[in-house]
Amino acid sequence: MIVSKEYGKIILIVLMTLAFWFFPNLATADDHEREHRDSRRHEISKKHEDKRERKKDDKGNEVTGQLALWFLVAANLSVALSIIFKSANRFLPLGTKSKSLINRFNKFHKKYLRRFHYVLNPIGICIAFFHFLLSSCRSSPFPELGLLLMTLIVGLGLMIKFKVTPKWMRRFVYRLHTSSATFSALIFVLVIGHLIVD
User: Fold this and answer.
1) The whole model's pTM is what?
2) Spatial CA neighbour of 61 closest among 124, 138, 133
3) In terms of domains, do 112 and 177 share one?
4) Where is pLDDT greater, at 47 or 15?
5) For the chain, what is the domain count?
6) Contact assessment for residue 132 and residue 60, using Cβ atoms and an 8 Å cutoff
7) The domain containing residue 123 runs over which residues?
């Protein structure tokens, strides 16, 4: 009885040795899977850590950002008023006197406020450029895109003002500069970019 138990143990050891000899993957399967899982976990945690580090490095220069914002708001106040007056004349059920008053006020503000649009926008874009240089955002490409779009819109405006484009191109440049799609894209990019940094 004792002899058969001993033989049983020996046979079991021999069978296990042969199994691991001919099928070495059986011995390493668990370790390999564990290593794979651990390395995957390590990769994921490293990615999250890198993201947190990049977010930690994101910082905006408040003073130049606020200054650029207020310059650009002041510069485009006349444009906003013009849009409001035109919309009111077109869509609101107003009398002839009211419409005439709105038209006169629109002409008045265009005559006296529009010059600030041409002066303050280039100053605002210069301050925005300094804001970009003094800030850092490694976690998002939106600040670069926002500055690029803003520069494009201001550049198009200067092209219209100084009539540096050929005649055949002026209408296209004007439409692109005054397009609500271009303006909406700029606002979207700026808001998203600043939300990411904050």
Assistant:
1) 0.65
2) 133
3) yes
4) 15
5) 2
6) no
7) 60-197
DSSP-H helix ranges across 58-95 = 62-75, 77-91
Q: Which of 56, 73, 100 is the last residue of a domain?
A: 56
Nearest 5°: the CA angle 112, 148, 55 is 120
Task: Assign 2 a pLDDT band (cuts: 50, 70, 90).
Answer: very low
Within a 10 A sphere around the Cβ of 3, how many other Cβ atoms? 7
State how far the Cα of 109 lies from the Cα of 79, in Å rounded to an integer. 10
Alpha-carbon distance 157 to 122, whole Å? Answer: 10
Residue 50 sits in the same domain as residue 75: no
39 shares its domain with 73: no
- Whether residues 151 and 178 share a domain: the answer is yes
Confidence of residue 120 (pLDDT cuts 50, 70, 90): very high
Higher pLDDT, 89 or 130: 130
